[in-house]
User: Fold this.
Amino acid sequence: MNRTTVSLIAGTAALAAVTGFATLSSPQAAGTARTAAELPVERTSLLCPSPSTSDIAETSYTSFTPVTKDAGSGGKAELQAAAEESDGKSKGEKKGKGKKAAKPVLEPEEPGKPATGDTSGGDAPALVGTAEGKFAPGWTVQETTEVAAGSGRGLQGVNCSAPDTEFWFPGASTAADRTDYVHLTNPDDSAAVVDIELYGKDGALDSTLGEGITVAPHSSDPILLSTLTEEKQENLTVHVNVRSGRVGAAVQALDDKLGGDWLAASTDPSGSLVLPGIPKDATAVRLVAFAPGDSDADLKVQLASPSGLITPAGNETLHVKAGMTASADLGDVTRGEAGSLVLTPTDTSVPVVAALRVVRGKGDDQETAFIPATRPLGTRATVADNSAKGTTLSLTAPTRAATVEVTASAGSEGGEAVSKTFTLKAGTTQNVEMPTPAGLKGTYALTVEHVSGGPVYGARTLAATEEGVPGFTVQTLPYDRGMVAVPEADQDLSVLQK
Assistant:
């Protein structure tokens, strides 16, 4: 193999590692590809929405990258305000105004150790994060906000997400006691054009204001759902479709009586879905589902409990009409035990999206969180901002038994990582007894790695009491996409020079 061939193959591998969000493949008929090699991604982007408009909000950010074999030794990661250019210069500076670039909210020092930053008040901006080199594979950032009073009071949390071109949010609302915003963040140098569609119990809601929304470069826009339609509906599905460019999207749901939280996007439409990690003390659980195609969906509803799959009495199935949002109130479905909801087709498989609204507490001490349907954790998944108390890790193996290894990282201010292995029975959910870092100081990250068996789904619950009001938030653990498959070439590519 000559030098040109080596260079071309190395370039292909580098391109795949930088892209990092899709598996590359080559036509086998051409005889140029063999078994794909797994390489760490070399660059990752994450977007964090503006946390709160409340003057008494306190927000923390926690960044973590698990140690990844063959990830190299260089690179860096940082979170900056969305208005800051990716090259570290502000817009004013690029125009010659001499404005000094703002200091990043946080800059991790090394993989394997969490880094933290914080803001206060209601003027905190949306953030754009980039990680390169050894900081990129599996990079995760958690945004956690405490609001002591007012609409949406309680604990609000969201995993900062990668920019994309389409998002589904079942579980939003324009009811009188709800104030829901779709936060759109554009990390790029050109404007993004976005359509927001709303679907209720009878189908699409009349609205022209959601069409052709322009999100300026390096900016973030919170769009109030009630300004897009005059209809008041308790359960809505929000579809964010990007015509040009790409954005990060998340729904902030604020309730006057039940607190509030972030509603992350559901996984892509699928015939079967898993919604993991319902708190065992949930007092009310509502399932919201939507079928985006032309066919109705009939879903079998099951709860994966510690002892196996259970069918909730009175909610054995859910019929979802095409293009309409359906819901079902499941009450205190977990009955004091760990649980995850499993949706499967009763007959013909029809793609759907779904999410849960979960309530804990009673009377004036109620608080709300959301659990969207999620992807399995795959090879590895990580969640940051865990504390010695108030953290629950829930794992479920809906179809086959599985074994996972859970690693608690070093603390942000000290401590040593520790790992523990767990075996999950088929059809069950387990709130695992997490390992605690030795000598823990500060917060830590939890990384779950799949060892053997069937697919595993996971979620982490954070709980805290703010001025006597119990708050909580739930984040799912989808695959971190820290590795990318790169095909190996066995043909002499120097022939391309002729």
About this structure: The chain is about 5% helix and 50% strand. The longest strand covers residues 444-453. Residues 3-19 form the longest helix (17 residues). The CA atoms of residues 5 and 494 lie 6 Å apart.
